[in-house]
Design goal:
Number of helices: 13
CATH architecture of the largest domain: 3-Layer(aba) Sandwich
Number of domains: 2
Radius of gyration: 20 Å
Strand content: 15-25%
Bound molecules: nicotinamide-adenine-dinucleotide
CATH superfamily of the largest domain: NAD(P)-binding Rossmann-like Domain
């Protein structure tokens, strides 16, 4: 039987997870829940997704006026599901947890929630097994997902003594009018280290990591400079060979002439990817170096809107136990979503 998935919260992340669920042969979408009608609800209704209202007493008349049919309340939707993917805004997931507990449904939270809300934080490559059979799991944020993928791959092969990361973060998503900065560079937070290092440790507790982050006026992607001192002394070629084993680590060859995040997103458009999503870590191959002291260095760009999508799909398989082998789940997800092509 296919796993019945409900999407509670249908914004930047939720709409992508819904589409990704639709592309899996072992899952079905029970529906999506929204707080009000808008262009995203319009498209969802055209895709034929059953739409449920978060607060039907309040939202019902608005949906009616917009001519969008609702199938019931989000509680009705959740009751029909085997698992809920909560993609509500930061902090709301924690409130929604009470609903999932009351209805006895397992749920996945996103990176905007604290680790403690779920008790288990997830990255498919790094700790798939920990999510098997769990009631609540958090898929870590876009930046933490990108870091876990890379650090896990390098740590497994060569041992990471210490990771040091500078993150240059997009000010807001393309459809976000309220965030910024509009002009300037914001150390965010000024207090060091930034929360990203401890967040990586919720998945990879043994990794020694220091992070600093800044926000800049761009919406397309984040950029990381990653430095890691390694326990072994691999050659650059050995490092590249390891990175090539992971489809979610995309090595950008220099001849592609991808010079900045704008080109990376344009590549997504050229590929005809849905919403130009680059779900892989975009690692500039030329930047991957191993210096005289045996330290790894690289630049990677992270598409904040989409890199967590395959991880949510794998997390559904792990929690429901329909696939106990993380590598198999990742391969299945990658194939269904066109990752690594
Ligand atoms: P978003 O604002 O784009 O979408 C959230 C949606 O949830 C909106 O449609 C909103 O109307 C709806 N909503 C509000 N209250 C709700 C409720 N009580 N129940 C159900 N739905 C409700 O937010 P987003 O960017 O998709 O972020 C969702 C989560 O994913 C957050 O935890 C965020 O930190 C995390 N995340 C975001 C990004 C990113 O870059 N956008 C990347 C990784 C993780």
């Amino acid at each position: 039987d296919k796993i019945k998935v409900a999407l509670n919260g249908y914004g930047t992340i939720g709409k992508r997870v819904a589409d990704a669920v639709m592309r899996q042969d072992d899952m079905t979408l029970v529906g999506i829940a929204k707080t009000k009608p808008d262009y995203e609800a319009y498209v969802a209704s055209h895709k034929g997704y059953p739409i449920y209202a978060v607060d039907p007493a309040k939202a019902g008349p608005k949906f009616k006026a917009a001519g969008i049919e609702i199938a019931g309340s989000n509680l009705d939707m959740i009751k029909k599901a085997d698992i809920v993917v909560d993609c509500a805004p930061e902090g709301i997931g924690e409130e929604n947890k009470k609903i999932y507990e009351q209805l006895g449904k397992p749920a996945i939270f996103q990176g905007g929630e604290e680790h403690e809300v779920a008790g288990t934080s997830f990255n498919a490559a790094a700790n798939y097994g920990e999510a098997i059979g769990k009631k609540f799991v958090r898929v870590v944020s876009c930046n933490t997902t990108g870091l876990c993928r890379l650090i896990y791959a390098i740590d497994k092969a060569f041992g990471v003594q210490k990771a040091r990361v500078v993150l240059v973060r997009r000010g807001g998503d393309p459809n976000d009018a309220k965030r910024g900065p509009l002009n300037g560079i914001v150390p965010d937070p000024i207090q060091l280290p930034s929360h990203h290092g401890p967040d990586v440790q919720t998945v990879l507790p043994h990794i020694n990591i220091e992070t600093a982050a800044m926000k800049v006026p761009t919406t397309l992607m984040h950029m990381h400079f990653v430095n890691m001192s390694l326990k072994k002394r691999p050659s650059r070629e050995e490092v590249l060979d390891v990175l090539r084993q992971w489809p979610r680590l995309w090595l950008i060859p220099s001849w592609y002439n991808i010079k900045f995040t704008g080109d990376a997103i344009e590549f997504g458009r050229e590929l005809g990817r849905s919403r130009n999503d680059i779900m892989e870590n975009a690692i500039w191959e030329e930047s991957v170096t191993v210096d005289k002291e045996g330290e790894f260095n690289a630049f990677q760009a992270i598409h904040q809107e989409s890199d967590v999508i395959p991880e949510n799909i794998d997390c559904i398989r792990a929690m429901t136990g329909i696939e106990k082998d993380g590598m198999k789940s990742m391969a299945k997800t990658n194939k269904a979503l066109g990752i690594g092509n």
